[in-house]
Amino acid sequence: APSPLQFRMASIQVVEVSRRFAASAPLSQRARSRQEQIIGYDPRSSGSDTAPQAGDVLALNRASLSVKDGESMVILGSSGCGKSTLLRCIAGLETYEGEIYYDDRNMQDVPPKDRGIGIVFQNFALYPHYESKGNLSFFFRLHKRDQEIDERVQLTAQIMGLGFDALLERMPKTLSGGQKQRVAIARAICRDPKLLLFDEPLSNLDAKLRSTTRLEIRRLINRFGITTLYVTHDQAEATIMGDRLAIMDRGRVLQVGTYHEVYDHPANAFVAGFLGLPPMNLLDGTIDGQYVVVNNERLPCPSQLQQRLTQGQRVIAGIRPEVMRVLADGESAPAGAGRLTARFDLAERLHAERAQLLHAEFAGKRLVVRAPIDQDVPLRELLSVTLPAESIQLFDAETQARI
User: Fold this and answer.
1) Sorting pLDDT into bands at 50, 70 and 90, what band is 40?
2) 268 CA to centre of own chain
3) Among 210-219, 254-263, 309-318, which is the least confidently predicted range?
4) Rounded-to-integer distance, Cα 50 and Cα 52, Å
5) Is 224 helix (H, G, I), strand (E, B) or coil?
6) CB count, 10 Å around CB of 178?
7) Which residue has the higher pLDDT, 111 or 35?
8) Strand residues in 203-337 grouped as ranges (E)
9) Beta bridge partners of 232
10) Computed over its alpha carbons, how large is the radius of gyration of the chain?
11) How far apart are the C-alpha atoms of 121 and 198, rounded to whole Å?
12) Looking at 233-242, 245-254, 298-307, 328-337, which range is the least confident one?
């Protein structure tokens, strides 16, 4: 008799992996424009020696990532950034250039069925002609391991918790979206994987089901310490599901770290402007002595950065909405603090968080300030906003890198 589910662990190393999708015929101007709209940039404008030929899409561009044994890594990015393609390459479902290792084994020539992985897809991907138990046992029938089925299904049902037994005899068409997702997750863990892969598994569920299902998944990961890669574009989901985050854009992994590491110390302007609800305000400025001039207003540069700056240098000033404070009429800014003036045209109230987001147009960009919900802030009037000088983050305007 087989032993109970043990959930072996594996570390993952992705080393400069690239993936191109070639067009079957030269693209028309309209098709190229549509392609650029989908992926967010012209795929021929990479500028590197790996730039694809005209008509190709460079979905992954020398992406590298390291996942520890038993770690839950969230791959986070906007639509079209390459996160699902990276997951499929790790699973062996896509061909690629570069190297992917499970522990110390190069997986280039190892088929998906021999990798010891469990995958949960966005669309559930259940076999429609099998009941739930048949979906869970399909892998074992395929590999002629029928003698293991009953114990494996029983153990998995216990792991999935209250009410799962009632789903085992039902066909997929009779299940709700949340029930289908539970079966899909159970099918993935039933085979005792050493790597669990999730490709936006909750995007087809309503908000309430997403909230409860992601907690169930996180409990399973915590309970068994399964090495997990979880793809999502939902930042709230990412904070719950990941021990660490990998932020992707244009086929590259830009930064890896815990949520707080990436939030507090973004590696570049893209990460700063992507992570956060709402994200960091990014304002164009120029260095003038110990100040950064933004829209003709002077903000003090953080003292720890002044030795790295040069006169006239073009920078991007990053300011988190929560560090800013709208001054009351007649109130002065604290000594040494920065100060801006803005006219707010919209107050977005977040009642559950007892806060409001104040929106203004500033220097041709949107400026967002987070304020207490009970603060009376008049709209369309010129108001002073203060912020601590040390809270300002600066990025090079040319390279976008953090200074």
Assistant:
1) very low
2) 16
3) 210-219
4) 6
5) helix
6) 18
7) 111
8) 228-232, 244-249, 252-257, 281-288, 291-294, 297-300, 314-319, 325-326
9) 76
10) 25
11) 6
12) 328-337
pLDDT on residue 370? 97
DSSP letters along 145-182, please? Answer: -GGGHHHHHHHHHHHH-TT-GGGTTS-GGGS-HHHHHH
Are the CB atoms for 393 and 401 separated by under 8 Å?
no
372 exposure class (CB count in 10 Å sphere: 0-12, 13-18, 19+) = exposed
Q: How far is CA 34 from CA 30, 47, 70, in A?
A: 6, 21, 40
For the chain, percent helix, then strand, then coil, each to nearest 5? 30, 30, 40
Nearest to 200 by CA among 301, 124, 89: 124
Asked if pLDDT for residue 27 goes beyond 60, the answer is no
Task: Please give the pLDDT value at position 156.
Answer: 87
315 Cβ contact list (under 8 Å, min separation 6): 284, 285, 286, 287, 292, 309, 394, 395, 396, 397, 403
What pTM was computed for the model?
A: 0.84
Q: Identify residue 189 by its one-letter amino acid code.
A: I
Gap between the Cα atoms of 151 and 289, Å rounded? 72
Tell me which residue of 76, 84, 357 sits closest to 239, measured CA to CA. Answer: 76
- Please provide the DSSP assignment of 35-103 as one string: HHHHHSS-TT---STTPPPTT-EEEEEEEEEEE-TT-EEEEE--TTSSHHHHHHHHHTSS--EEEEEET
Per-residue pLDDT tens digits for 150-200 = 888 888 888 888 788 999 999 999 998 888 988 999 998 888 888 999 999
Tokens of 166: 């009632």
